[in-house]
Write a structure and sequence with these properties.
Layout (H helix, E strand, L loop, with lengths): L2 E10 L2 E11 L4 E5 L6 H9 L6 E6 L2 E2 L10 E4 L11 H11 L6 H10 L15 H14 L4 E5 L7 H19 L6 E6 L2 H7 L2 E6 L2 E7 H6 L4 H6 L6 E8 L2 E4 L3 E4 L11 E7 L18 E13 L2 E8 L5 E7 L9 E6 L5 E4 L6 E3 L3
Parallel strand pairs: 3-8, 3-9, 6-7, 7-8
Antiparallel strand pairs: 1-2, 1-4, 4-5, 9-10, 11-12, 11-14, 12-13, 14-19, 15-16, 15-18, 16-17, 19-20
Helix pairs in contact: 2-4, 3-4
């Protein structure tokens, strides 16, 4: 039964948390709600769960209006950022609790199946207080999935875990959620996160949110490669996408500070003359001057380091171009130590530029895919 949100709005003390949200979520789908903190992700999940009621609009499931139906009467399982388990029950009893409430007598096989998938089968006889944070969150996820709900909601379930554990559990969740949506009674999965890498890893559909609005809803790779607007591109980029103002003149782009980029044989060749905004992900800068796929030369951008930070196995370098004064961010795979004011040269690849309109909604007008 499809879950339909029809022009949902939520206003609290004069502040608009959700604005005209229109979504249709089909059974057996994974839907990743991606947005910065305060974008409206948790508000959206609470509406679906029945914990809050919208100020405007309606929620329907299978054609039935459930807008005013309380949470206890909805077939929903919810996992929060903070793991929540029954402290006096063992792991086995925690996972089994929703099955017992449903009157399932022989729940042992299902408990063991979930414990194995989440790699906590050796912890079944322990109490939550004897577990690490990551183990407790796995128990909370297993208990939610054991409920067998039609809708499974996960509100940033990995955000409080360390980097390595987050990566490991993300891979496990992808397989587990895939199994949940492909079961005999496929569930609709809605997963909220601030991490673009998590959205790509989980796949399915991505719902981009910003300031209470849905900016774009489409398959994850489509949203990543063809963001609908500058705002959408910024939400689906970590570190932030580099945005440059520029003008197309006779087959070339002139960026701020007079930087010239040839576009003769690239995906940008058909752009009429005029002003645009150009986007380049931090990972799309190049270290070498050799030509890109189209044969167009890459553009050298000598710069000085303003900040360098290591994030896991990647290094983010914040730079200011020496000649043009342009500020930009480069993502390097691996751990690198750069000094303040160190001089580096990276290369802008015309084949990797996205072009957006200069005014209005700044809609995407050219993508390399």
């Amino acid at each position: 039964m499809a879950l339909v949100l029809d022009r949902i709005g939520k206003t609290v003390a004069g502040e608009r948390h959700l604005i005209d949200v229109d979504l249709t979520l089909e059974p057996g789908t994974i839907n990743v709600v991606l947005g910065h903190t305060g974008a409206g992700k948790t508000s959206l999940l609470r509406m679906i769960a029945g914990l809050d009621r919208p100020t405007t609009g309606a929620i329907r499931q299978g054609g039935v209006d459930i807008t005013r139906r309380p949470a206890r009467e909805r077939s929903v399982a919810l996992v929060y950022q903070q793991f929540i388990n029954y402290p006096s029950l063992t792991v086995r009893e925690n996972i089994a609790s929703p099955l017992q409430l449903r009157g399932v007598r022989d729940h042992g096989p299902r408990v063991l199946e979930l414990a194995r998938v989440l790699r906590i089968e050796e912890l079944l006889d322990r109490l939550p207080g004897e577990l690490s944070g990551g183990q407790q969150q796995r128990v909370a996820i297993a208990r939610a999935l054991a409920k067998g709900a039609e809708i499974v909601l996960l509100d940033e379930p990995l955000v409080n875990l360390d980097y390595k554990l987050r990566e490991d559990l993300r891979d496990e969740l992808r397989a587990l959620l895939g199994a949940v949506r492909a079961g005999a009674e496929p569930a609709t999965v809605v997963y909220a996160t601030t991490d673009p890498a998590e959205a790509l890893a989980l796949g399915g559909s991505t719902i981009l949110m910003h300031q209470g609005r849905v900016l774009q809803h489409a398959p994850a790779l489509e949203v990543y490669h063809r963001p609908a607007s500058v705002a959408a591109a910024r939400v689906f980029s970590d570190p932030p996408m580099n945005i440059f103002d520029g003008e197309v003149k006779g087959g070339a782009i002139e960026l701020a500070g007079g930087l010239q980029v040839l576009t003769t044989r690239t995906h940008l060749a058909a752009l009429p003359d005029g002003r645009y905004r150009f986007g380049l992900r931090a990972s799309d800068f190049r270290l070498r001057a050799d030509a890109g796929l189209s044969g167009m030369p890459r553009v050298a951008m000598p710069a000085r380091v303003e900040l360098s930070e290591i994030s896991g196995s990647e290094t983010f370098v914040y730079l200011r171009a020496v000649q043009q004064g342009l500020q930009y961010i480069v993502q390097r795979d691996g751990v690198f130590h750069h000094q303040l004011d160190e001089e580096l040269t990276f290369y802008l690849d015309p084949d990797r530029l996205l072009a957006f309109g200069a005014d209005g909604e700044q809609a995407l007008v050219a993508s390399y895919r």
